[in-house]
Amino acid sequence: MSDGVPDPKPLPRKTGRYMLFDHIGQGGMAEIYLARATTDVGATRSCVVKEILPLYAGRADFADMLIKEAKLAARLNHANVVQVFDLEREGGNLYIAMDYVEGFDLAALLKKCSKQKVKLPAELAFHVVSEVLHGLDYAHRAKGEDGKPLGLVHRDVSPSNVLVSFEGEVKLCDFGIAHANALAVSSGEEPSEAIKGKAGYMSPEQANGEPLDARTDVFAAGIILWELLAGRKLYRSDAGPLIEQARAAEIPELPSRGFAHEDDLRAIVKKALAKNRDDRYASAAEMQRELDAYVRKASLGANPIKLGDWLREHFGEDLLEQRSARERAAKALENAPVIHPKAQRTPPPPVVTYKEEAPQSVSLAAMDVSPPSVAPSTKPETADASKVPVWVWMLLAAVVAAVTFLVSRR
User: Fold this and answer.
1) What pLDDT, on a 0 to 100 scale, did the predictor assign at position 175?
2) Contact of 103 with 210, CB cutoff 8 Å
3) Which of 16, 39, 40, 144 gets the most CB atoms within 10 Å of its CB?
4) Is 95 exposed, middle or buried (0-12, 13-18, 19+ CB in 10 A)?
């Protein structure tokens, strides 16, 4: 899912037990890397590491909130939720490790569709939203070891957090991060543009800073459905601050697209986007049931196989290029020798390999090795006899003796 964002730090480098080797994006509060991790049995796996920006990682309140929420998110294990399996602090770094989904996030996919003038079929759009609702329902109902509900609310259901794989999987990511995200926005510090943009998918109660429940995620899923069907953003950037539009929650009529039983579809969207949460679907499961019933009625059904086939057909070249790049990078890491500082007697070249303790830059594409620069000497070099091995003197003596014997025979 690389978007060509320049890496802020040299790669490859180690963070905890993860070797970061490809910078694949930047979120509102984290740098995002493709990494390789070594398991307890010595196997390696690809994963995503989100390294929290120093601005937030250094704040105790933010770090505590993030750790608490991520621990809850790590309990989630569902086909429509990206698995979080590690959260650690190393020195001043705070990072989260999660499963890698090979494909696109929905925002990137829609940009590719627009750029290449490829339309996302309606049946696939319905399928994506239905899968998101399935994942949300599971998370909302999740319980802890004591049998009590975890009370998880995603708070940031947006296209950038919906991942679509080339196998046709749809997964929701960043459970446990959005709550900390909200803390960053309310801290008085200037939030990044990426965080500001999240307001475009907020429920009115979230935009007003009210206590939240599962229905705020239902509203966000309703926005995604509205945008996929309308082919544009719900809130316009030229209509004032997004946060103010979210508070007002003035939802335009869904444009007609000629779908069968379109009034039924409009009713679903309208209920999901009701300004008063009491008028909304009470759960993600309730909205999913009605959406799936409409899809069957309108004969617009789809499945993971159909979604995966469509993605490979239109964006298969991207898949092959990404796989090749990752394979080259991973191979470069596996072949690069590790130099331990204590074993070094001379300074290493500036770009050759990496140390386990302090990673150095390495060319991932061609493993080009820059030779160390040597300052020209101003004195002629002379041999140091004291450093010549003993066996060399013995060999030389034997040669001299042989030559003397041959000369004497003449």
Assistant:
1) 83
2) no
3) 16
4) buried
Contact 137/285 with Cβ under 8 angstroms?
yes
Q: Which amino acid is at 293?
A: A
At residue 178, the pLDDT reads 62
DSSP-based three-state secondary structure for 35: strand
CB 28 within 8 Å of CB 56: no
Residues composing the chain: 410
User: Do 4 and 18 touch, CB atoms closer than 8 A?
Assistant: no
What span, in angstroms and rounded, lies between the C-alpha atoms of 265 and 230? 12
**Local structure of residue 7 (DSSP, 8 states):** P
Contact between 223 and 201 (Cβ < 8 Å): yes
For 308, other C-beta atoms within 10 Å of its C-beta total: 17
Give 289-339 pLDDT, tens digit per residue: 999 999 999 999 999 999 999 999 999 876 667 666 766 766 666 565 443
- Separation CA 64–CA 296 (nearest Å): 45
State yes or no: is 156 an active-site residue.
yes
Binned at pLDDT 50, 70 and 90, residue 74 comes out as: confident
Cα-Cα end-to-end distance for the chain: 83
- CA-wise closest residue to 10 among 358, 349, 334: 358
Please give the domain boundaries of the chain with CATH numbers for all domains: 13-323 (1.10.510.10)
DSSP code string of 56-110: HHT-HHHHHHHHHHHHHHTT---TTBPPEEEEEEETTEEEEEEE--SEEEHHHHH
The per-residue pLDDT for 170 is 98
Nearest to 160 by CA among 192, 119, 201: 201
- CA nearest neighbour of 360 among 32, 6, 14: 14
Q: What is the mean pLDDT of the chain?
A: 78
Instruction: Give the tokens for residue 283.
Output: 């759960």
> Which residue out of 137, 156, 174, 217 is catalytically annotated?
156
Residue 96 is given by DSSP the state E
Structure tokens that stand for 108 in this block: 């990137």
Cα(212)–Cα(219) distance, integer angstroms: 11
Plot region of 405 (φ>0 → left; ψ -120 to 50 → alpha; else → beta): alpha
Give me the residues paired with residue 87 across strands. 96
Strand partners, 14: 19
pTM of the model: 0.75
Is the C-alpha dihedral spanning 185, 189, 193, 196 positive or negative?
positive
Bridge partners of 88? 95
